[in-house]
Structure prediction request, 116 residues.
Amino acid sequence: MTPYPPGSSVEAGAGAADTSGMRILATPEARTFIRERGGLLFVRPVRHGGFRAILTTLRASTEPPADALDYQRFETKGFLLFLPPRIKPPFELHVEVRGRLRRRVEAFWNGCAFVL
Prediction:
């Protein structure tokens, strides 16, 4: 994951719907990627687990899920972010583009690849 030092080109955005104080830190490349695909980003937790442990990661997509009308909406510079209902937003949500052959957008909960 790319660190975001103070003064970097990553921009934080917040809108009127953002009453949680969540900061959305997205790289310029991620903003362009999302805008080119309609300007909507849907982020939802996905539980992975087995017999001994459960790990929750994030899945980000520009395609709306079936229950998208129920999602919480957050406005940020360049795109709209949607989180599932009843989920407490993180302090920071990092958004960046990954992959060389299959470009995709990924989101990180407070900078981590898993949800705390």
Observations:
- The first helix runs from residue 28 to 36.
